[in-house]
Amino acid sequence: SPFQFTVGPLKDTGAHLVKAGGPGLEHGEQGVPAEFNVWTREAGGGTLAISVEGPSKADIEFKDRKDGSCDVSYVVSEPGDYRIGLKFNDRHIPDSPFKVYISPAMGEAHKLEVAQFPTGCVQADKPAQFMVRKNGAKGELDAKVVAPSNNEDDCFIQLIDQDQYSVRFYPRENGIHAIHVKFNGVHIPGSPYRIKVGKDDVDPAAVHASGKGLGDVKTGEKTDLIIDTCNAGAGTLAVTVDGPAKVAMDCTEVEEGYKVRYTPLLPGHYYMTIKYNQMHIVGSPFKINCTGESLAEAGGQETSSVIVETVAKVSKGGNRTGVILPIFKSDASKIQSKGMGLKKAYMGKQNQFTVNAGDAGNNILFVGIYGPKGPCDEVFIKHTGRNQYTVNYLVRERGDYILLVKWGDDHIPGSPFKVEV
Where are the Filamin repeats (predicted)? Predict the structure, then answer.
């Protein structure tokens, strides 16, 4: 998440538009089905191949939901490190192969339960703690905290009485941390636990990328793109380019965010992944088509990446979101309006008029009604297509009202109208 939906025909298809997620791509337990989902909706038609490699053979079940998504469930008989490969038309999808640790069968670990787990948000660089009840289980408890940057840190474990442990941890970064709690090497129920550290106001959905560097590029030419991080908070920006050859890439800070510059050396398809705090931004990964002469020796697929710790940026409009209005080309004098509701209205009834802006260019229609005691109860504007509008309004008081109809910043002919109720 966030997921993109294409309305109308798909402009681009391919493995880079397939998404996958679910607990079965993060961890699992020996002999217990692990599940995840794959969304191929945006990728067009093709074949999806799933492979599970590791210490034992996997029994894979696959269910196509017929809506562009499918459920996958797999069971393995041995614990250990597994790699799950997801290929669409023989190409790995983003983040594939996934590394998954399958823990031994739960055994005694299923008896354990966690108590007093911190709710809400804990502060970075301050200790936090929770309790683990053994409920009569025999064995060793082990816990570690994994930060958003994938740095691991041990937790301090203390036996308070014969059936209860205190687990203290000391987060050093902001963001979502995972706390792995294992008993005899096996995750206890619910582990890994997720916890939010610090005021993590980072919103990857607010980050946008644009520029020539996301379109068609040429070999040997420097090309750039802008990653707009305004109002997205401070986070970790990671840009990775997969393609036929390594690309020379750098990242510099600009007013609205960050400028990424790169030079491809071999023609072909490049895939650019842009992540903010480990989350894909909207549209990532981007498919970039490169043409031109070969300026390097062809080899296998190469990966280049750059990681930047960003600072919080705010768009020029102060704290508001950086919305820039389009430049409208319109002529309000060409608008026609008609209907009883422009002259006379009745209390408690729906009064109606129509506005025809078909010849007036593009703009936004504004309607306001003001009466002897303030604004009217409700105004309802319905666009019926091709810049034709139907307006209904409801008034509850008698008297003379003023009706304003504007097309952008300009009054339409006859506005403001005087309406008698």
Answer: 10-102, 104-197, 199-290, 327-421
